[in-house]
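Inputs:
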Amino acid sequence: MTARRTLGALLLVVALAACGQKGKHAESVIHRRLEGEPKTLNALLATTDPENVVLALLERNLLEYDEKLDLVPGLAETVEVSSDHRTYTVRLRPDLRWEDGRPVTSADVVCTIRTLVDPKTPALSRKSYWDGLERVDAVDERTARAVFREPYAGRIQAFNLPLLPAAAYQGTDVNTNPRNRAPLANGPYRLGRWEAGRTLELVRNTQYSGERPGPEMILFRVVPENSAAFQALLSGELHEMRVTYEQKTRLEADASVAARPLIFDELGYTYLAWKNDHPLFASPKVRRALTMLIDREAIARTLYGGLARPASGPIPPGLWPYDPSVAPWPHDPKQAAALLDEAGFRPGPDGVRRRGSDRFAFTLLLGAGSDLQRQITEVVQQSFRAAGIDMAIRPMEWAAFASKVDAGDFEAAILAISLDPNPDLAVYWHSSQRAPNGWNTSGYRNPKADALMDRLRTTFGRDEARGLYAELLRILHEDEPVTFLHNVRSRWGLSKRLEEVRTSPIGLFLFWPGGSAWRLGTGTAPL
Amino acid sequence: MLAYALRRLLSALATLLGVLTLVFLLLSATPGDPAVLAARSSGGRPASPEALAAFRRLHGLDRPLPVQYVTWAARALRLDLGRSFQDGREVRERLAAALPATLYLNGCALLLAMLAAVPCGISAARRPGGRFDRVSGAVFDLLFATPSFVLGLLLLLVFSVKLRVTPLFSDPALGPLGVVLPVATLGLGAVALMSRFVRASVRTALDDPAALAARARGESGGAAVRRALRRSAGAFSALAAVLVPSLVTGSVLVERLFSWPGAGRLLADGVFARDVPVVLGLTLVAGCAVVVASLAGDLVSAWLDPRLRDVGLLGERP
């Protein structure tokens, strides 16, 4: 009997100890989801979300976006701009170190920028900011200076730039450098272990001089399949993931699960691109009519579950030039019919509108993979049919779809865009950027709009720029080069135990402090 | 036999070359510029023409197609499969990381399928129309008709979510429980196919006049089945040859569902990103597996049936 009691007590102690260990371990690890494996952890070559969200914890930027999208000091104490807006002087903080203990110096800044502008470096998401760099040099140990050939209003955003350690990259081929998969960190975490295709473990960087992060470890798990990730979120094995509308509804409906939804505005919009030089879509009246035929409020209500609002133009509400006085075109089929009549498109014998030999029939391309976009196009198709417009829908494999759109080889297409905080609209709407030479895929052209975009490139005062933006946005609103469909809200499922979660228009992670401020609590504190 | 083996080898190599060329041409003809696709995945500010040009130059995409192909083929002869467009790593290195996981997964699934399918097929063949034959036939038809993705999701919901006996994320490091669901998902589909195949082959052999005569001479049921199995060996080896390539790339959806870092996921990512070196590298490996397996299958068949090997190097019969 005594022996049995002793054994029982021993088992109890072991069980309690195990529980205690498990609890401690769980407290200090945040489990995060990656939809795919990072291809690289070289901050210049990174392009995808999985790469950027991991790097956001490993590497600080010279300047960081805060949650309101203002640029604030990061690795750089200051970035001074010369009066002619061509020279940028970066002054680093004094206490910065790489994880191997070496100081972060101006040599790292120079090496990073020179690597970035090297024609051999395919830095797809960063290179365009550094067009026109004349030279970059180290002034002293903590100061570097970059000189550009021409001033550009959006240039300061180039300094939202992570660094490469010069000691590892100087004189090497950046594309094959072994550090691309074993990065040296200067941020709050460093890479502990990378089990290819499965997990990345980030542990606290003891050399980091900023605020010590709460969790001991961030465990990223590669979970490509959304339904499997959601089950893990429900059971508490993952602490965050982007969720679908159905999943968000499930989280709201079931209080017993370990996660709750988080909804916020992000920079971006969905749109229907019309090829502007196509005979059917050349007139702004026709494009406006097409927009007015679509009940975007109803789509937002029914298909987005209320998590979207009709877009008025290419600047979403989260960006400073947004002009709330420009209202989205209303849903008004009568007015739309009148506009189509004015443009010469009148109902033909088969019920489809015609103008001379031009029958109002066209094909809209749809990138495969989004059920929601397919449903939207079906609603649009019905609305158009009722107005005498024959729209066929052609779903395509995504890469083939993107290729056709980028080449400008389409009549109409449904697209979504997510923007960075630089409001420069020239990239998408200037006539010099018409496809296939640039990203103005609709082929929009308006000399007045071009002139305004040209002026905005060299307008540095925000008040003056705001006036120019207002004028430009009104022109784009009148011309309606595409049908701006919706500004869509972002949907996440987060563990109820996560605390200190902040949001920004660029998401949960790509601003400072982003995910590095997250803490694990008991699950009772509000987000 | 040697001439037969040589003839089969030459024809297999020609087939392999043809398949590689075809895959290269198909990938090249499919719309989708790898540089633009990589840039589009970044969101935010679009890539500049200079950045896109740097990407194309880096990966030789600025050269004419025939030059790209010949360059790749010349390197492949030296076992250099080039670098992935997606991450710049050597394709050889990526294959070496992904293939063992896939071979392990599919190998276990195939083994499970064989262990279950052979006895089931034999039992069903011995009493065609019997209760076991009818029930197993219905179950296997259902399994065969169920997409592996659906089957896997069902298993995941039952065993990982409801019963919590298996982990949500498969991992061989967690022991048998860490792999049982993906293995079962793949294995159950294969059991259905193989079992019906075994049943049909054994039944055919049992219905053979020679088998009938043997039974008339008083041969026991067990001996008849053994004889039938021997007679079906050629068909089994042909089936094995057909199934071997699936060891390399046969688990794309299951790998995705169970977060399994194998060659199936690598292939799918490669196709969507138009990552020609990765897709060609995997095609080469899968092609070699087909060549070796079909060659082995043919040689086994020829060894079992001497009539098959009485052909010359060019296929002529004496």
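Residues 91-126 of chain B form the longest helix (36 residues). Flag for discussion at group meeting.
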